[in-house]
Write a structure and sequence with these properties.
Strand content: under 5%
Largest sheet: none
Pfam families: CsbD
Structural class: mainly alpha
Helix content: over 70%
Number of helices: 2
InterPro entries: CsbD, YjbJ_sf
Family: Belongs to the UPF0337 (CsbD) family.
Radius of gyration: 13 Å
Number of domains: 1
Number of strands: 0
Protein name: CsbD family protein
Length: 57
């Protein structure tokens, strides 16, 4: 996994977790959903990079 892609994936996951938690705390469903979506996007990016790594090994 390239370092830049890995960093982006981790950043998206972290931002998503923060948004999701903040949304739950304040009772904002939209913020919770945005956080969940961002976290999922980071998970997908990470999975894509891991798959590319597995194919190149």
């Amino acid at each position: 996994m390239s370092a830049n892609e890995k960093t982006q994936a981790k950043t998206e996951q972290a931002k998503g977790k923060v948004k999701k938690a903040a949304g739950r705390i304040v009772g904002n469903e939209r913020l919770t959903a945005e956080g969940r979506a961002e976290e999922t996007k980071g998970d997908a990016r990470q999975a894509k990079e891991k798959a590319k790594d597995a194919l190149t090994d």
